[in-house]
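If you are new to this repository, start here. Below is one unmodified record pulled from the training split, so you can see the exact layout before writing a loader.
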Amino acid sequence: MKTRSLTLLMAAAMTVSAVGCSSNNTSTNSTAGSTAAATGDKKILSVQIGPNPETMDPALNSALDAGNMILESFECLLTNDKEGKVAPGAAESWEVSEDGKTYTFKLRDGLKWSDGTPLTSEDFVYSWQRVCDPNVAAPYAETVLSMVEGYDEAIAGDITKLNVEAPDEKTFIVHLSNACPYFESLAAFATLSPVQKATVEKNGDAWATAAETYVSNGPFHVTEWVPNSYILMEKNPNYWNAENIKIDGIKFNLIEDANAAYNAYNAGEIAFIKDVPTEEIASLEGRDDFFVAPMIGTYYISLNTEKEPYTNPDVRRALSLAIDREYLANTLMQGTYSPAGNFVGPGWMDTDGTEFYKNSNGGENFFKPTADIEAAKAALEAAGYPNGEGLPVLTYSTNDAGYHKAVAEYLQQAWKEIGVNLDVEIVEWASFTPMRRNGDFEIARNGWVGDYTDPSNILTLLYSTNGNNDGKYNNPEYDAQLDLASTTLDPKERSAALHKAEEILIEDAGCIPVAYYNDFWLENKDVVDGIWHSAYGYWHFEDAELVG
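And here is the target side for that same chain:
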């Protein structure tokens, strides 16, 4: 079922990953292209990883493109290294109590913000409590902080109840209500980046919309920001490891159209593009500048379970059963994705150290690789819509990038076979994610790339109160299993609860898994070296070096 995709991935595994995009706009401080020379002899790497971001506030972002830019401009207490292991970040060391409920982080000496002012442990207290502020409405709040003492009171409005403290300028202590085996990964997650209190309070939400107020603490800082055109980040001289940053900056070209990005790459204006036109994939396979690498994540479909007819699980099941996942992944998506057999796919780790999906459903996939039309029709009849009779025209919302439009057109055909008529709504990226988050849709393309390898990271997406639960799925039995998994200290009991949760979700068709993600991109190795790709779907430019 995965032969073609895995073959492509094996070839790509011998190379490093990189991504980029272009813009026709030039800057006095940077080149529009991928060459090393620029005004003032600055070495600026020109890339494309996505269009205009919805938000660049670490507490509010939930998109990969903005997340990649935040990754280069901020640094958490901990980071993830090239092997995917947790490593020191702003904190040079940390200790965990014997009961696993108290984490003590020691910050590096002399940490500073990009504006040169001191960064202390109090900044982390402020930033972590801010994530719980209901007025901020951080979508990841529950995911990253629900295990900290005082979270319930904090999210209800008294953010000072979140039990984090700064006994001195270099010490940050976190008190958990229960042990969390993946908490170190959370301390490396961008939502918990430090943000400067004075800047945020002075400028409100606007602090994260302009170069002048975008104060950060990472390897690069924003020096120019032209919405819908580019964001220029230059090396942060106040970063603790600035001497090891080899380039002078990164120009993130904000291009939504994959063909425009591809043309700029071919013209030598950009060294790295993430959005490759899908119609070019076949001709690119085998080229030494085309890369494919696995990601921990699932491409899925959200159904607004608060709207009819999606309140009916039989309708949801019918739509899922009618999908030929093997065709979608291996033919329509040309092997750049892998057909999903479960919601939690490869890369997520079980409590015994094995891959979670291999232990799901008795070791068998929940989904057949091909469509089951008869079962889909039976489910639709059980819902009261035999052959689709009485069912209104459904609407599927998606942005027009990569294979998304092609997938939407396939769903029109596939669901027509069971009597379901579907309209497709194309929405620009800047509007798509807030629309989906606000529940202003019927059916929508969705996807999740892991922030850490614990399967709770993806399963809690569908927890009833999770800020990223776009479909508003609500099943008390599902929540109960995830509650158990978050509190038990028994690894076997925790594993069983997580697997049971996935089983409930699949049976209830709380969402429709379609394919497992792989990243593919173009990178000019004659121009840039040292970029690396993580399984979490990010490209790391902090180790890049221009060689052309």
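Two things worth knowing about this chain: The first helix runs from residue 3 to 12. The radius of gyration is 23 Å.
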